[in-house]
Each structure stands twice: as structure tokens, then as C-alpha cells.
Specification:
The complex is a heterodimer of chains A (about 425) and B (about 325).
Chain A lengths: L1 H19 L3 E6 L8 H22 L6 E6 L6 H11 L11 H14 L3 E2 L17 E2 L5 H13 L9 E7 L2 H4 L2 H11 L2 E7 L8 H10 L3 E5 L3 H12 L7 E3 L6 H5 L9 E4 L8 H11 L8 H4 L2 H24 L6 H9 L2 E2 L1 H6 L9 E2 L12 E5 L4 E3 L8 H18 L8 H5 L1
Parallel strand pairs in A: 1-2, 3-4, 5-6, 5-7, 7-8, 8-9
Antiparallel strand pairs in A: 9-12, 10-11, 12-13
Chain B lengths: L1 H14 L1 H32 L6 H17 L4 H24 L7 H23 L17 E4 L6 E4 H23 L1 H11 L1 H6 L4 H27 L12 H8 L4 H27 L7 H12 L14
Antiparallel strand pairs in B: 1-2
Helix pairs in contact in B: 1-11, 2-6, 2-7, 2-9, 2-10, 2-11, 3-4, 3-5, 3-9, 4-9, 6-7, 6-9, 10-11, 10-12
Amino acid sequence: MKHWKTLAAAAVVSSFGAAALAESIYVPNLSYRTGPFAATGIPLMNGQRDYFEMLNARDGGIGGVMIDFEECETGYSTEKGVECYEKTKGNAVVTQPWSTGITLQVLPKSNVDQIPILANGYGFSPMADGRTFQWAFNAPAGYWDAASMLITHLDGLDGGLSGKKVAFLHLDHPYGKEPIPLYEKLASEKGFEFLPIPVGLKEMQNQSAQWLQIRRERPDYVVMWGWGAMNAGAITEAVKTKFDMSKFYGVWWSGHDADLDLVGADGAGYKSISWSFPNPDAGVMADIKTHVVDTGKTLSNPDEMAGVFYGRGVVMSMILAEAIAGAQAEFDTGVVTPDQVRWGLENLNLTEERLAELGMEGMVPPFSTSCADHTGHSGAWILEWDGEKFAKASDLLQADVDGYSELLAASAKEYAEANAPWPVNESCDAMN
Amino acid sequence: MLNDIFIAPFADMIAAPDFLLQVLWEGLVSGILYALIALGLVLIFRSSRIFNFAQGIMVVFAALTLVGLYQMGLPAWVSVAATLAVMFALAWSIERVVLRPLVGQPDIILFMATIGITLFLIGFGEIIFGGETKQMITAELGIPTGSITLEPWGGLLILEEKDITIVIVAGLLVAGLLAFLGKTRMGRAIRALGDDHQAAMSVGISLQTIWVLVWFIAGMIALVTGVAWGARAGVSFALEVIAYKALPVLMLGGLESISGAIIGGLMIGMLEKLFEIYWGQPLLGGNTETWFAFVLALIVLLFRPQGLFGEKIIERV
């Protein structure tokens, strides 16, 4: 019944909104609320949606222009994602592909369609090279940042990583394979054995073979790049096989409260690296409650809103809203164009002070982007599951960006050559 | 290379027999769950010649209904009874709304109709229950959640109590089903319909009643399968993809054989696990479970097109 009511409310709100938004900024989101990955997608999409709902209700949009935020359902299917991109690109000022697979498909189109791609914390890590990927952004941190930070963190524990073994449990999908080149590089540099363990889409909920391999190989650490049902499958198998949870780490997409709720206290000690952290006491959350929850516009619920993923969704929309606001100020306009939003994404400057003004204290580290740096490399925290919730378990970590910059430049160059003719933003050279 | 293929795997098995036992146990549990899904498919195919593409989503739907009813405040076992009532209503609706108007249509039309049922149940289920992963009410149903640790040959063997329960319940379910089909009037009617529709109807067997009954039994099996899988890693729509693992089971065991579904499921569950652990991971980088069962089934089909236990169809012109 609850879902009927929320869906009906959403339909009424969106139909009313469509009529009312005569002059608006169209922000599509290639979301997935259905299918095997819905469980992890829904709280993120709810956070994204509620932030724009809040801006529309509280401020009348951004710079006085309402945000026409619309979701197109992909089910995390790359094919459907491309269809959604084509369907929504007409009036879009940005596209949010929401899967590394979809991002890789849309990436070559970005130079032609000239619509910025915003893939917060996902996508193809070399997109950090703004000179090569002038239309693509993965702020505030990319997968290679995550890999670098995790390995640096593990190298600082128990005598370092030299001579040890790190198992990499990953979804057998472009997303899961994305950081492997950097892990292999780091393994040779630091002298640890890197053991990739793929999990097929059909095996996400039956990972006994993968965890038997982990039992046989006895890795010192398991690092997970999981998503959707894979996270819950891995965590329950880890508990079942009595794996030491304090040696089990996940990327930021493998740190969903609901996945850990399945094992509760048995999962205590599991850690996930994260560039966002929920802060229920933050000003932005109070505004969302006042303008979205109390007016019946949210699709979320209090438990979900207190979790890591909902908060991250809010942060994602804030980053986009800041880019739009920056573009409005720079070009002295209300209704911005995709090119102007691209400028906004390239000139983000989220300082501690600005985050405090936005009511987002502690929810995301400060970061800034530039013509050459489309990631921002905000750094991240290690979050640890205490049996009931995630808590910060480290100071802010920073990726060794210089350490992988050559590999990143080579990958960007290789991509550009493979997709030639590929335009490069020469103006970045002049700025740097 | 030859050593890696023909010697090393067996040496590993001998060197760590406790680990081999663990692999076989995990394969057995997976195999039983594959067999249960295949069983639902076989029952419907035997009685109606319909390949029920919706069996996977029925597993998800049954499990979500159970958890949803429990969350509404019903006691656990009352939720089970209510879920069975829902599955009966679903079976009746499918027969009345989808199948009855299509009687006499080519098999492919009926197959397409089950794809339609799948899409409907996905959308309907997501509207009613949402897409979030739900926690199966394992403990509330009295299913033990601990584990038994054994030390065979000084090694380690971990048996989850819920897996043991799954094996026992699945065994009882299959035994009960075989007894029902073999010893009761209704069971014989189902088998008669499977053998010859026209002849069965001519002696007064109601096609509609049997179809409702068979779809309801498939729904019951779906509920047991959903509880079993859900107890392992939560209940979500991702469970649906596991149903695809029943396809090679049917190719191996034959579409019409109940014993084929069971033996095929167990064979695939254990062989794919053995292959993955001793050959797939060391030699092929792992994740061979995605394709191994299909390759195995195709090899069997090369020699026995009707599957290991299927009946050879001879059409005389």
C-alpha cells in the first residue's frame, strides 16, 4: 500500500510539475529502481531526487529556475541505458548514466552531442583527464582513487603488504573490472599477490564457489567491487565461511546499510571506503524533511534516509546543483545550456565553508575540479560496520594520484587513439 | 598443462579431502535448489506442454509475498498459509485469464504468454513490495541459523544448519510430490494429461482443474525455493536470474522427467562446483559456473537429444 501511495504521489507531482515547468532546467537521471540492482539503486535515486525536490520547494529551483528532474528506468541494463540517453538527450543539460557500462557506451557520443556526463564516483577512471575527456566528469573521486587509497591503507597495517595476498572479489562487468590495471600495477610495485575473483551476474546470490576459493587461497585481505545483490551475497557468504570481517573491505558501492542489516552483528568489522557520510543532523537533511518529507513528496523512509546511500544521493545532486549555480553566475543566465553546465562542472570549488553554507557538514570532503582534473580527488574515509550502522574508522585518506598519473594518461591516450578522431581540449594546457 | 588438467586437480582433492567434501556439500545444496526450480517447470510441462518461463519470477513473488505478509504483522506460519493462498489465487488467475483463452494455440504462443506473466509479476511485485532486498524470516519460521563445524581428517567442514534444513525439506517435498503423483487420483490425472490430453479429457479429467492444481503445486515449490534461496542471501529480484540455471538442468534431465529434474539438478550443482574449484579457477580465471552447465548439457544433447531421462519421441507419419 505504501508503494501505491508513493507512486501515485510521484505521478501527481511529476504531472503537475511538467505542466508548471514552462521555463526549467531539464536534468534526466538514468536510474534503476527495478531489477537485480534495484536494492542499491533505490536509496541513491531517492537521495538525488529529494535534493532537487527540496531546492524546487525551498528556493524555487536554482537561481530562480525550477529543476525538471526526470528519471528514465534502465534496470542497470546497458542497452536500456543507451535508449534512455537517446530519449532524454534532446533538452538535457547533463546526463547521469548510473553504470560504468552505460558510461562507456555514452562516452564516445559526448563529443558529438556535447552534453556533459556526470558519473559521481563511477565510470571510467581516466575520465579524470579533462584534457582528453572534456565532456565527462566523475567527481568527487574515481575508482582508481579508491584502489589507491585502499592499498595505501592496507599497506600501513600489520607490517605492510609486501609478500601478502589480496583477493579482489568483483562483479564480472565493466564496473568490476575497471580498477584491475591499477591493482596490477600496485601489486608489482608493493610486492603483494593480486588475486582477481570474478562473480557472474547469475552467481551474485550464490557465491559459494568464490568463497571456497577464498578459503583455499587464504588471502590476507579481500577487497570487494560489488553492486546490487552481489554485496549481500558476498557478505552473507563471508559470515557463513567465518572469514575475518576485519580483513574484508569494499569500494563505496559495497557499503550499503541494508546489505549489512542482513547479517547484523555478524558483519561487525566489515569496512567500506566512502567519499560520503550520512549526517542526519546536517542542515540539508532538516530542509529535506521540511520541504519534501513533511509535504509527502519523498519516496524514501526514515531508515533509508539515515543510511550511507541516501546521503550519497543527496551529495550527488548537490554537486550537480553547484555546477548549475556556478554556470548561472558565470554566464549571467537562468536557463543554462549543456556547455555552460560543463563549465560549471569544470569549476567546482566545494570548500569546507561552502559545504557548511549548503548544510552539508561532514557529508563529503572538500574538493575542486579544473579543466585538466575532472575528478577532484576528494579523498575518502574508511567506514566500519559496527553491527548496526556504519561509523567513520579513519581520518580522510587521499589517493596517490601522482603514483598512477602515468597509467591514467596512457589509458586516456589509448582510448582517444582507439576512438580517433577524438578532439582534445587544448585550452587546458594553456591553463595549467 | 596436461599435469594441470589431469593430475593436479585430483592430487588437490586427495591432499585436502575435507575441502573436497565442502565443495561437494555446497554443490549438493545448489543442485537441490536448481532441481526445485526445474521440478516446477517439469510439472507444468508434463501436464500442459507449456514451458513456464515465469517459474523464476514465481520464486521471487512467493518469497516477497511471504516476507511482505509477515511485515504486515501476520505470524510467520500464518504468513506461509496466506502466501499459499496467494499462490493458489495466482494459479487460478493464470488458468482463467491467460491459459484458458489460449487452449489449442501453438506451444510457442503459450510460451510467449508465460513471458508475459513474467513481465507482469516483475512489475506488479515491484509496485507492491518495492525493489529493496528483504530479509527472509528464517528464524521466525523455526529454521535454525547456526552452523555445525566438523573436522574430518583433521580438516574443516562447515555445514550451515539452514542448508541442512533445505536438503531435508526439499527431500520431503520431492518424496511427497512423487507419492502424490503416483498414489492419488489427482496425481494420476496429472500424469494422464501429460501422456495424452485428448484421451485424458475423454475419460472426464478436467483440463482446467488440473492446470490450476499444477500451477499451484509449482507455486508451492516456488515458495520453498524462495525461502531456501532467500535464507542464503536475502530476497530480491536478483533471485529471478537463478532460474536460468534450471535450463541446463532440463536439457540434461529431460523436460518431462521428474527424476531427471532432480538428478539433473544435483549433477549440475555438484559438477559445476567441482569444475569451478579444481579446473575453472586455476586454469580459466574462474566464473565458469556461468557457462559450464550449458556446455555440459549441450554435450549430453549431442548423444541423447531427449536428455538423460527424457522420453524418446517417435513421430510416425
